[in-house]
Here is the input.
Amino acid sequence: MEGTKPVNKKLAAALSGGAVLVLALSGCSSDNGNDKLDAWAKQVCDGVQPQAKKIEAANAAIQKQTSDNSTPEAVQKTDAQAFQDMSDAYKAIGSAVQNAGAPNVDDGAKKQQDAVKELNDISAAYASLKTQVDKLNTKDQAKFADGLKDIATSLDKLSQSGNDALKTLEEGDVGKAMAKQPSCKSASASASATGS
Here is the structure.
């Protein structure tokens, strides 16, 4: 089974980079009394938290699969499910940001729409990775390992690109308001634990 193990590890490493994507919700909290913004942040953070847990669980499933001597079939099944879950989670986070409306800051509407588009793009990228995994040839060890390598490369790119619009959304007062929310704090903490 040695053929797929190093590749699996690469996949897991790439994945844990990607999972922190949306969860860079840290920052120093300061209270400038913007109730509207605090309410907005609470709505988004409450929407993000369950999805952050889902992303973390998908991550853990792939990590576990890499530490076992798993068959290609088992790896395929786990990875496909994990990518599907991540795709669903990012889509749901996009909906949470969309439903919260524009944050009460300069250019709030543009920042919100850019972040929603980005989240939906990330969701689509994970969905396409799931399709790739589903097509892998599990009967041929070498081909399977090559296929996983390609997926790991795509994941790497995904984890490095991605979150510019989210960072922009979380700049300044928005980030401060989010940092005060318990649900964002726990989402951020679980993500950094996963990503380390």
In short: Helices lie at 5-19, 35-67, 72-100, 108-135, 141-160, 164-169, 172-179, 182-195. Residues 35-67 form the longest helix (33 residues).
